[in-house]
Amino acid sequence: MKEQGLTSTGAYRYYGFEVTDVAIGKTAAVRYCEDQRKAYSKEIKTDKVRRTTPSDDDFILTTLQATKNSRGDWQVQTTSWKKADASCVQR
């Protein structure tokens, strides 16, 4: 985004955190929702905010797959996103 002369502004809201799968304490799947209705791009040079019309695409479902390393730290291996997921959309 910065390469295009943009930054982000506004508010992101995260909710619905859930650990959906744990296998023998070594792997886990985590999911959560993100509401981007009040988040916008802003032009760095002019401070102009690029406001958008809210839509279902502003609701993102994020899923993380993590494994525990030899020190016991959780490390994310894969991340996936899905816009307008029905489990995240709020009216």
TrEMBL record:
It comes from the Bacteria. This is Uncharacterized protein.
